[in-house]
Amino acid sequence: MRVTVTLPERTYKRVKEIARDEGGSVSSVIAELTARGLADSAPGGHPMSPRTGLPVVSVGRVITMAEAAELAAEE
């Protein structure tokens, strides 16, 4: 399907770089990235918190209060 979209210049440049590096077209890169993004946000993609009912997203390891205090002190 043919669609016209407006992308920020920085995003468009990055998409062009990816297309060049992978030997594909800008259109194919946008289609692939869109499909990935939609798959990541599909219902059931993230476990739900039984306490809040909100999706739970894992972004790394758990840090301790001591580590958090140390990071805050560095700022």
TrEMBL record:
One of its GO terms (biological process) is regulation of DNA-templated transcription. It comes from the Bacteria. Residues 2-39 form the CopG-like ribbon-helix-helix domain. It holds the Pfam family RHH_5. This is Ribbon-helix-helix protein, CopG family.
